[in-house]
Structures are given as C-alpha cells and as structure tokens.
Amino acid sequence: MAKDPNEQKKQGEPKKDSGKKDAKAPKQQAAKAEAEGSEAKKTAKASSKRSDARLRRIYLERVVPALVKEFGYKNVMAVPKIDKVSVNIGLGEATQNAKLMDGAVNELGQITGQKPVITKAKKSIAAFKLREGMSIGTMVTLRGDRMYEFLDRLMNVALPRVRDFRGVSTKSFDGRGNYTLGIKDQLIFPEIDYNKVEKVKGMNISITTTARTDAEGLALLRHMGMPFRQQAS
C-alpha cells in the first residue's frame, strides 16, 4: 500500500521543538545559577548583620539562665530583657544661644553613634521667654546592637570615670522595672574631646525593660553589669 507523500514529508522533517528546548536549557541553567548566587549573597549579608555585641552575648549566655534560676520562669520568653534606651539632653539656654544646640547634637551623636533628634517646646511660657516650637533639647532612642554597645560603654567605661564613684542608686526605678539615670557631665565618655566642649551638659538615660516589677528590673541590670551602690547592712 502506497504511503501518503505528505506523511512521508512530515516524517522526514527534523523536529524543531527539540532544538528550541536545547537552546533554552543553557539559558535556564544560567538563570538558575544566577538566582542561587544572589540567594547565597543575601544569606552571607544577613549572617554578617547578625549581632556581635558583647553585652547581648552575655545576656543570652549568662543573664537568662541566672534570672530563670532566681525567679523560676517556666518559659524563657518570660525572662525580662532591655527593650530600648533613651538618652536626652535638655538645653533651656538654647533659647538664648542657638550654638549650644549644635554642640549638644554633635556630642550626643558621638556618644551614642546615632543621629539625634531635636526636641521642641510644646507650649509657650512667658516667664522663661519660651515660645512654642523653640528647640529646647535633643534626644536619641537606641535599640538592638547600638543599645547594647552603648550600655556596655556606659557601665564599664564611662561610669567608673566619675569622680568618687561609689555606684548608682537602686531607687531610681519607676515601679514597672524601668530605670532612669542622671549624668551631670558628658566628659565621662571617652568619645568627647575636652578641648572642643563649650559647656558642660548633663543628660538623662532611661532604660526601658520588659520586667514587670522593680525587683526583676534590678536583677536584670545587676546581672548585666550595672554598678549599683552597695546597700548598707
């Protein structure tokens, strides 16, 4: 039986699809390799961003087990931790001398390693020659590694440089485990150059924790190295 010539022609023609698939295969492999390479770069970048703060490692390795043993927490997530640290410099004199604000912002940035924000007056007070919206201070809110690094320098470098230092008070908690510390002189921080300081400025440091009571907050900061004053027996 004679075969249809059209059918013979179709059988004799090479398959075009296979060629297209073979041509696409190297491109797909190259795209896949590029995607895997970018994913590896992202993973490496993320791993490089992981915390390397010394005080954070101390908290995880030493403080958490000590607090679990002391307070008997059944869940590790219930162990109190430091949430944020706020550093504030108030400058009422800046209403008369605007250059003081520039110095305060620069010095606070050097101390904390983060750009400060300028706080402004919320209302006018005629007795103090204060108008609403005037710059009266500067502050920084620290979280994460910068927070731990600042606390590490504060507790182990800056506070011991205070003249006749005997420890900080244990009575500065607010009833909810948060602690506020007042510093009279910014020169205790080694980042500040004495020759460039125009005026001695005090600052308030507020440490916000997740502790529910002052006793838990005190134990947390004490285990982390806060040099509290020894109570007289």
Explain the overall architecture:
The chain is an alpha+beta fold and 233 residues long. The chain has a five-stranded antiparallel sheet. The protein is globular, with a radius of gyration of 31 Å. About 3% of the residues have low confidence.
C-alpha Rg, in Å? Answer: 31 Å
Fraction of helical residues = 40-55%
DSSP helix count? 6
The largest sheet, given as strand count, sense and whether it forms a barrel, is: 5 strands, antiparallel
- Main sheet: strand order: 2-3-1-5-4
Q: What is the H-and-E element order?
A: HHHEHEEHEEH
Secondary structure: number of strands: 5
Calculate the terminal CA-CA distance, rounded to whole Å. 118 Å
Mean pLDDT, to the nearest integer, reads 79
Work out the strand percent.
5-15%
Which ranges are low-confidence, i.e. pLDDT below 50, for 5 or more consecutive residues?
A: 43-49
- Estimated structural class: alpha+beta
Global outline:
globular
List keywords for this structure.
233 residues; globular; single chain
Write the layout of secondary structure elements.
Elements: H1 5-12, H2 16-48, H3 54-71, E1 82-90, H4 99-112, E2 117-120, E3 135-142, H5 144-158, E4 179-183, E5 203-209, H6 214-224
Antiparallel strand pairs: 1-3, 1-5, 2-3, 4-5
